[in-house]
Amino acid sequence: MLMGLVTKNAIMLVDFAVEEMARGVDRVTAIVDAGRKRARPIVMTTIAMAAGMVPSAMALGVGGEFRAPMAVAVISGLIVSTLLSLVFVPAVFLLMDSLGAVLGRVFGRFVGATDEAALPLPHA
Fold this sequence. Notes:
This protein is mostly helical. Helix content is 78%, strand content 0%. It has helices spanning 2-22, 27-57, 64-108. The relative contact order is 0.12.
């Protein structure tokens, strides 16, 4: 549950940045815009999920004392993972993009021009 939410958040940020870069926006501006525009849905999802876990964290109901530690751990994980994903995903995206450019220059000289014309990507 928590891992899926963190993965979804990262995919949303990176996908938005890649779409912006395809439109011609430079990579730093694209990832900053992705963080600004996608932060609200990411935080709202985290708040909703944490609010849903609050009754379990308060140990309400029969057997609540057994579920409370798990609920507290999930809420803590949600908060920490949201903050980290809003900071580290853009940073790692920029690092990997830079690394890809460097490796492209290094290994690009070993790969000659292709004889095949580039095919356009299919639109879904």
